Automatic annotation (TrEMBL):
This is Alkaline phosphatase D family protein. It comes from Streptomyces cupreus. InterPro entries: Metallo-depent_PP-like (IPR029052), PhoD-like_MPP (IPR018946), PhoD-like_sf (IPR038607), PhoD_N (IPR032093), Phospholipid_Metab_Enz (IPR052900), TAT_signal (IPR006311). Coiled coil: none annotated. Residues 157-485 form the PhoD-like phosphatase metallophosphatase domain. Residues 49-144 form the Phospholipase D N-terminal domain.
Length: 517
């Protein structure tokens, strides 16, 4: 499914987040002169937040945009429904249009548009654009999933997470775009809810944390203004899920981090606002339209018989975090909730795919923080929900090639998954890639990181790679194995950076575990 990273096809698509075709050129291709003269009712910049696509199916894709001429002040649109036309073509100059239609940008959803286009060809690249009020959007490029019964080919997947606006520019996306992935998997912390900092490299908008829908909309709009993020959204489909910072740090279900300061009713209102803003800014299907303080995000995507991707929600259904080692081993605690847990087990055991991928926002492998005798864990991670985690690890023994793809840590942590982390001699049952952050933690002091973390490696022999550079992970998935790269940048403190490959790793089909090559 991949094309060469330096192909003319990719180079022509986007440069620094701009569309291949300017608005005027696009209008020439789309609108007759009479229509161009009559339809000029919306201001310039109505497509300031760009375009995106997501959740590819063999015959479909979600196309997204949001009308927002004044993005950091609520959007700037009138309180009225606005028709938005879309086109999807087999070529970047829109000479072979295969779908066109009109969607409604409604004020109650922030004038966002989610077009679920169906009837497309599997494993096919397409180009798309929108028009509203005489204005033309940037051009986006996307790809459908392969045919359901396709067993060959390959899939290039990029893993990203944790992009803190205040900690740095989102420069890893420039390199990601150059690597031309078929799909981008984003596993959480798309925005951060933290207050603006006077000392930050890029200061958050607003005057405090977001709590209302208008405040969350403004925060998302600010993040969407990053040119490298905008270019990547326009360059490939995303599959997204959220973690905690899209709402409130370390929240669990309907329990905030600080219950004494956020009463239940107030936090429910915050959840509803955060989930709606999330839906409004993500290329997801109507199944994710929130209902108050709930949004359905766990779902499954198929890439032929090559890979099944199980996207988890590790926030909405979890028990409150434990506060002790005994609590972490309480069998009543759940990370996924009963329904999602059974859904995942069924999807793993019934899978026809060669590779069974699990998008888990939170690290599954053990992190023993205590050097020497004893254990010390992060209770917000799967280490805090050990009974449920251990059940999955046992189940992995009868699952074909399970691989967990994770975020949250702001570190690269690549591990073998053990059937029982309490027994270092237990069987390896899978592998986990904890992707580093796009910008969170900024340009980290590497020497300080080594002094803190290297002494812990003896207590965590399942760790295969540990690093604190900013970047993302890139996977080339084939039937015989997965070749992974840890792609990093030299800085996120400047708008441009120099990328490199920090490490290469390999997973062999039928052989659990991962090796550094």
């Amino acid at each position: 499914m991949t094309t060469a990273a330096g192909s003319p096809d990719r180079r022509r698509l986007l440069t620094a987040g701009a569309a291949v075709l300017g608005a005027a050129a696009s209008a020439q291709l789309w609108l007759p002169a009479t229509a161009r003269a009559a339809e000029n009712s919306l201001p310039e910049g109505v497509f300031s937040l760009g375009v995106a696509s997501g959740d590819p199916l063999p015959d479909g894709i979600v196309l997204w945009t949001r009308l927002a001429p004044d993005p950091l002040n609520g959007g700037g649109m009138p309180d009225a429904v606005v028709p938005v036309q879309f086109e999807l073509a087999e070529d970047e100059r829109f000479r072979k249009v295969v779908r066109r239609g009109t969607a409604q940008a409604r004020p109650e959803y922030g004038h966002s548009v989610h077009v679920d286009v169906r009837g497309l060809r599997p494993g096919r690249r397409y180009w798309y654009r929108f028009r509203a009020g005489g204005r033309i959007s940037p051009v986006g490029r996307t790809r459908t999933a392969p045919h359901p019964y396709s067993s060959g080919g390959d899939l290039r997947l990029a893993l990203a997470s944790c992009q803190n606006w205040q900690h740095g520019y989102f420069t890893p996306y420039a390199d990601m775009l150059a690597q031309d992935p078929d799909v981008v998997l984003f596993v959480g912390d798309y925005i951060y809810e933290s207050v603006p900092s006077a000392t930050a490299l890029r200061r958050h908008e607003g005057t405090g944390e977001p709590y209302t829908l208008a405040q969350y909309r403004n925060r998302y709009a600010q993040y969407r203004s990053d040119p490298d993020l905008a270019a990547m959204h326009a360059g490939a489909p995303f599959v997204v899920t959220f973690d905690d910072h899209e709402v409130d740090n370390d929240f669990a279900g309907e329990i905030p981090q600080d219950p004494a300061k956020q009463p239940h009713d107030a936090f429910e209102a915050r959840l509803a606002a955060a989930y709606q803003a999330y839906y409004e800014h993500m290329p997801v299907r109507a199944t994710a339209v929130p209902t108050g303080a709930h949004i359905r995000m766990y779902r499954r995507l198929e890439f032929g018989r090559l890979a099944r991707l199980n996207v988890l929600d590790t926030r909405q259904y979890r028990s409150d975090q434990a506060t002790s080692q005994a609590g972490a081993m309480d069998p009543s605690l759940t990370m996924l909730g009963a329904a999602q847990k059974q859904w995942l087990l069924d999807g793993l055991h019934d899978s026809p795919a060669r590779w069974n991928l699990i998008a888990s926002q939170i690290m599954m492998a053990e992190t023993d923080l205590l050097v020497g005798e004893g254990k010390q864990w992060f209770y917000d991670a799967w280490d805090g929900y050990q009974a449920e985690r251990n059940q999955f690890l046992k189940e992995f023994r009868s699952v074909r090639n399970p691989v967990v793809l994770t975020g949250d840590r702001h570190l690269t942590m690549v591990s073998d998954l053990k059937e029982d982390f309490a027994n270092p001699q237990s069987a390896v049952v899978g592998a986990e890639f904890v992707g580093t952050s796009i910008s969170s933690n900024g340009d980290q002091d590497q020497d300080a990181f080594r002094r803190e973390w290297d002494p812990r490696r003896a207590d965590n022999p399942h760790w295969k790679l540990l690093d604190a550079h900013r970047g993302y992970h890139l996977f080339d998935i084939r039937r015989d194995g997965i070749d992974a790269q840890v792609r990093v940048v030299d800085t996120v403190r400047r708008p441009t950076s120099t990328p490199s490959t920090l490490a290469r790793l390999r997973l062999e089909a039928g052989r659990p575990g991962v090796e550094v090559v």
